[in-house]
Amino acid sequence: MHERHRNRGVGVTHQLGVLTPEVGVLSETFVEWDCNQLLPDRTAVVADPPPLGETVLGEPAWKIAGPLLEVSPAAGDPPPTPEAHDAVERFLRDHEVQVLLVQYLDLADR
Predict the structure, then answer these.
(1) In this structure, is residue 53 part of a structural domain?
(2) Is residue 14 part of a domain?
């Protein structure tokens, strides 16, 4: 698991969280819009890509403008570990996320 931050200025809080399986899928421009345009500079993104996901096997078609926590894909795509749950919770808390937008119900279930 790795986390990337971008400094967008002092006092900026990230109030929206977007949970999505992958970041950068070519056909998912609606996900890109939610992550980068819905609340610019106030959105933190969590991605949990499958081991054979489009962006795991190739280059992403687009990037995230703000903070991103990306779970490392695991063979067989098992449910997230307690450590992964803790990391996501800490990331969302650190970025003061107040509202979550979940792309795809199967990710919400995880």
Answers:
(1) yes
(2) yes
DSSP 8-state assignment for residue 37: T
Gap between the Cα atoms of 109 and 91, Å rounded: 19
Two tokens, residue 5:
């931050």
20 closest CA partner among 43, 48, 1, 39: 48
pLDDT tens-place string over residues 41-61: 899 999 999 899 989 999 999
Asked if 54 and 77 touch (Cβ cutoff 8 Å), the reply is no
What pTM did the predictor assign?
0.83
The beta strand positions in the chain, using DSSP E, are 2-4, 16-20, 43-47, 68-70, 99-102
- State how far the Cα of 34 lies from the Cα of 18, in Å rounded to an integer: 7
Q: Please give the Cα distance from 103 to 10 (Å, whole number).
A: 29
* Domain total of the chain: 1
